[in-house]
Specification:
33% strand; 101 residues; two-stranded antiparallel ribbon; 10% helix; mainly beta; single chain
Length: 101
Protein backbone atom coordinates (compact mmCIF):
# COMPACT_ATOMS: atom_id res chain seq x y z
CA UNK A 1 0.00 0.00 0.00
CA UNK A 2 1.09 3.58 -0.54
CA UNK A 3 1.30 5.66 2.62
CA UNK A 4 1.27 9.46 2.87
CA UNK A 5 3.13 11.44 5.51
CA UNK A 6 0.76 12.94 8.08
CA UNK A 7 -2.15 10.68 7.07
CA UNK A 8 -3.26 7.85 9.35
CA UNK A 9 -5.06 5.14 7.36
CA UNK A 10 -6.42 1.70 8.20
CA UNK A 11 -7.26 -0.52 5.23
CA UNK A 12 -8.46 -4.07 4.79
CA UNK A 13 -7.47 -6.29 1.89
CA UNK A 14 -8.76 -9.76 1.02
CA UNK A 15 -6.14 -12.37 0.26
CA UNK A 16 -6.80 -15.08 -2.33
CA UNK A 17 -7.14 -17.67 0.44
CA UNK A 18 -9.91 -15.66 2.15
CA UNK A 19 -7.72 -14.19 4.90
CA UNK A 20 -8.49 -10.51 5.62
CA UNK A 21 -5.31 -8.46 5.96
CA UNK A 22 -5.59 -5.38 8.19
CA UNK A 23 -3.05 -2.77 7.11
CA UNK A 24 -2.01 0.48 8.73
CA UNK A 25 -0.22 3.57 7.50
CA UNK A 26 0.67 5.46 10.69
CA UNK A 27 1.42 8.77 8.97
CA UNK A 28 5.09 8.95 9.95
CA UNK A 29 6.46 8.54 6.40
CA UNK A 30 5.52 8.64 2.73
CA UNK A 31 6.19 5.51 0.70
CA UNK A 32 5.09 2.00 -0.03
CA UNK A 33 4.51 -0.76 2.51
CA UNK A 34 4.50 -4.38 1.40
CA UNK A 35 2.19 -6.76 3.21
CA UNK A 36 2.30 -10.46 2.37
CA UNK A 37 -0.73 -12.70 2.76
CA UNK A 38 -0.15 -15.77 4.96
CA UNK A 39 0.19 -19.08 3.14
CA UNK A 40 -2.74 -21.45 2.97
CA UNK A 41 -2.22 -24.43 5.25
CA UNK A 42 -4.09 -27.59 4.35
CA UNK A 43 -4.26 -30.44 6.82
CA UNK A 44 -5.99 -33.77 6.79
CA UNK A 45 -7.92 -35.05 9.78
CA UNK A 46 -10.67 -37.46 10.65
CA UNK A 47 -13.87 -36.02 12.02
CA UNK A 48 -17.07 -37.37 13.54
CA UNK A 49 -20.64 -36.24 13.21
CA UNK A 50 -22.02 -35.04 16.56
CA UNK A 51 -25.65 -33.87 16.67
CA UNK A 52 -25.52 -33.16 12.95
CA UNK A 53 -22.31 -31.12 13.12
CA UNK A 54 -18.78 -32.10 12.11
CA UNK A 55 -16.51 -32.29 15.15
CA UNK A 56 -12.77 -32.87 15.48
CA UNK A 57 -12.63 -32.11 19.23
CA UNK A 58 -12.99 -35.64 20.63
CA UNK A 59 -12.37 -37.77 17.57
CA UNK A 60 -13.28 -41.42 17.74
CA UNK A 61 -11.49 -41.90 14.41
CA UNK A 62 -7.75 -41.75 13.83
CA UNK A 63 -6.09 -40.82 10.54
CA UNK A 64 -4.18 -43.86 9.29
CA UNK A 65 -3.11 -42.78 5.80
CA UNK A 66 -3.89 -40.11 3.23
CA UNK A 67 -2.95 -38.71 -0.16
CA UNK A 68 -4.19 -35.89 -2.36
CA UNK A 69 -7.19 -38.01 -3.37
CA UNK A 70 -8.18 -40.08 -0.30
CA UNK A 71 -8.11 -40.39 3.48
CA UNK A 72 -8.21 -43.61 5.51
CA UNK A 73 -9.50 -43.37 9.06
CA UNK A 74 -9.67 -46.09 11.72
CA UNK A 75 -12.68 -45.63 13.99
CA UNK A 76 -13.55 -46.97 17.43
CA UNK A 77 -17.05 -48.40 16.81
CA UNK A 78 -17.83 -48.64 20.55
CA UNK A 79 -17.12 -44.91 20.95
CA UNK A 80 -19.33 -44.17 17.94
CA UNK A 81 -22.17 -46.19 19.45
CA UNK A 82 -21.76 -44.36 22.77
CA UNK A 83 -21.81 -40.98 21.02
CA UNK A 84 -24.95 -42.00 19.11
CA UNK A 85 -26.62 -43.00 22.39
CA UNK A 86 -25.98 -39.51 23.77
CA UNK A 87 -27.55 -37.75 20.76
CA UNK A 88 -31.10 -36.43 21.02
CA UNK A 89 -33.68 -38.83 19.59
CA UNK A 90 -34.49 -36.56 16.62
CA UNK A 91 -30.87 -36.80 15.40
CA UNK A 92 -29.63 -39.66 13.26
CA UNK A 93 -26.13 -40.88 12.58
CA UNK A 94 -24.98 -43.20 9.81
CA UNK A 95 -22.66 -46.06 10.64
CA UNK A 96 -21.44 -48.22 7.77
CA UNK A 97 -20.71 -51.59 9.29
CA UNK A 98 -20.45 -53.49 6.01
CA UNK A 99 -16.69 -53.97 6.42
CA UNK A 100 -16.69 -54.66 10.14
CA UNK A 101 -15.66 -58.15 11.21
Amino acid sequence: ITCRKGVLEHRKYSCQNGFIMNTVCNGTFAGDLLYLCPPTVVSTACATLVNGYVSTQHPVCKLMNYSASYSICSCDLNAIRQARALQPSRSRALLDSSNVS
